[in-house]
Each structure stands twice: as structure tokens, then as C-alpha cells.
Amino acid sequence: AALTSCGWIGRFGLRNVLADCEAHGHFGRSAALAVWHGDLGETVAALQRGSDAIRLKLAEKKDRAQQPKDSALFSSQYAETLQLVAMCVAGYSGSDIQSNKASVWKNACEGLLRRPDLSDGREDGLDKILYDETLSLSDRVAFACRFLSRNDLKTYLDICIQECLSKGNVEGILITGLDKK
Predict the structure, then answer these.
(1) Which of 60, 88, 138, 146 has its CA at a distance of 20 to 30 angstroms from the CA of residue 29?
(2) Residue 139: which of 13, 32, 22 has the closest Cα?
(3) What is the Cα 50 distance to its own chain's centre?
(4) Per-residue DSSP letter, 13
(5) pLDDT tens digits for range 105-145
(6) 27 burial class (0-12, 13-18, 19+ CB within 10 angstroms)?
(7) How many CB atoms sit inside 10 A of residue 119's CB?
(8) pTM score, two decimals?
(9) CA-to-CA distance for 178 and 22, rounded, in angstroms?
(10) Following CA atoms 122, 126, 129, 132 in sequence, which dihedral angle do they give, to the nearest 10 degrees?
């Protein structure tokens, strides 16, 4: 129920949640959700679809001699970055991570995979994702529900509630719900 409330599980499962993210142009979020659900194939596909969508939008704007509204999200450099990250994820093989070949791959891709939204949270610690305010509270709470122990989850939710109260962040309603209290 918590993952559904956070938007991580739709009526028909993960694929529909990812499709909804991508329909709104949130390909990075789609890829992150796929990673956090352990579906690296879908992660690669989401990143490639994002790269293709950006290139298509750039070509359309070029044909009309228009500048994209948000040039940072619709740059050829960003499209290339998505493609590079997709290549890095595609080359990942967690089962033989200790082999020399895997070590070369890991070293080559380490910089790109430091993005908090593409990390699975295990290598660099969960806090990097849990307290990254560039991620929505709903994604951070869903991540916590999936990867924290029950006691750690309770502590984390208490911290989130206190932060939302102190900052006046209405996203906290996701955790507390609406109540007469």
C-alpha cells in the first residue's frame, strides 16, 4: 500500500508506472525506479527511450527553427549522457563483480553511475538517496519502504515528518495522511 501511495506501483504494475513517468518526460526517474526494482533491462530501455525522445524533440525544434523551452533537459549533450549511462548499466554484471573484466568495467563507469538517482543505494550508503532533496519525497519514502528495516523505516519517516513540519512542506501528507488531529 505504501509503494502504491508513493506512485511506485500502479494499477497494472511497474511497467505502467514507468510509462507514466516517461509520458511526462521523466526518463531519469523511470530509469531510477527500474533500477530500484532490480530491472536493469528496463533501466537501459528507459534511458535509451529518453535519449531518443530528446533527439527527436531537438530535430523537430530545428525544423521549426525554435529553441527548446528548457534547453538543459533538451540538449544533445543530455541525450548523449543518457545513452552513455544506458551503456554503462547494460554492461553491468553483478554476479561476477570480483573478476578482472568486471573491475575494468566498474572503473570505467564509476563516474557516470555516481548519480544518486541511478544508484541502487547499496554501495555508497542509503543516506545519499534518502536525504537527496532533488528527489521527490514520495520517491525517497518508497525507496525507504523497499530497502530499510522496519525500525530504520520508522526512524526515517519520523525525521521526514519533522522536516516537513518545520519547512511547511505539504508533501508530508503522503506520510501522515489527512487527520483531524
Answers:
(1) 60
(2) 32
(3) 13
(4) B
(5) 666 666 555 555 555 554 456 788 888 888 888 888 888 88
(6) buried
(7) 19
(8) 0.60
(9) 30
(10) -150
